[in-house]
Amino acid sequence: MLSTAAALAMLWTMAFSGSGEPVPYETAVARDAAIVEAAATAPGSIDSAETADLSAEQLELMAGDPDWRASARLYHAGGGGATGNDSLGCRPIPMRTVAVDPRVIPRRTKLFIRETVGLRMADGTVHDGYWYASDTGGAIKGAKIDLYTGHGRASMRPAMSLNMKTLTIADAGDFDGCPPAWETASN
């Protein structure tokens, strides 16, 4: 979210060119449209066209009351991030694995996080909202979750808008074994 001062600075920059002369209205509007277009296709943006194509189960989970509300944090592998397997002994799956406090959200719960539906990821694909509670962490106490984003700090970029936010989470069932890979996750 932009602060008021940042928004005014951006407006001022768009309104006046480097020469100090005013920019015509049409030029400023065209620049604004280009900025909005770029933001809509950037990793981490929500694709509203994709959210229109939800399955019946996803629509039901979106419409129902959430089972939990939890404050989200992001974590990644490498460079001081997580290493190895999750608490079930499985390899964590980027943008699928969630670390939870098992006293609040049971492990092996398939979660539907509304705020991630339509989230555009770095490879251009769009998130379907499904995550898997397969990890725990020492800092995960109470209504907090950690979303695993992948390898390296750059993997956190698509989900950065979710960091430190309270997310609405629905129980979408249980899963056996390890969290599924992307190809089979929403089936």
Describe this protein's structure.
The two termini are 34 Å apart. Strands 1-5-2-4-3-6 form a 6-stranded mixed beta barrel. With 187 residues, it is an alpha/beta fold. It folds into 2 domains: 4-40, no CATH class; 48-174, Beta Barrel (Barwin-like endoglucanases). Helix content is 21%, strand content 22%. It is globular.
Topology:
Blueprint (H helix, E strand, L loop, with lengths): L3 H12 L9 H16 L7 H4 L4 H8 L4 E10 L19 E4 L8 E5 L16 E6 L8 E8 L14 E9 L13
Parallel strand pairs: 1-5, 2-4
Antiparallel strand pairs: 1-6, 2-5, 3-4, 3-6
Q: Give helix and strand order, one letter per element, not per position.
A: HHHHEEEEEE
Q: Under the CATH scheme, which architecture of the largest domain would be assigned?
A: Beta Barrel
Distance between the termini: 34 Å
**Highest-level CATH class of the largest domain:** Mainly Beta
Overall number of structural domains:
2
Shape, principal axes of CA atoms: globular
> What structural category arises from helix and sheet content?
alpha/beta
Low-confidence stretches: 38-42
Q: Got a strand count? A: 6
- Rg, Cα atoms, Å: 19 Å
The name of the CATH topology of the largest domain is: Barwin-like endoglucanases
Helix content: 10-25%
Query: What is the typical, i.e. mean, pLDDT?
Result: 80
Main sheet characteristics:
6 strands, mixed, barrel
User: Helix tally?
Assistant: 4
Percent in strands: 15-25%
Strand adjacency order, main sheet: 1-5-2-4-3-6
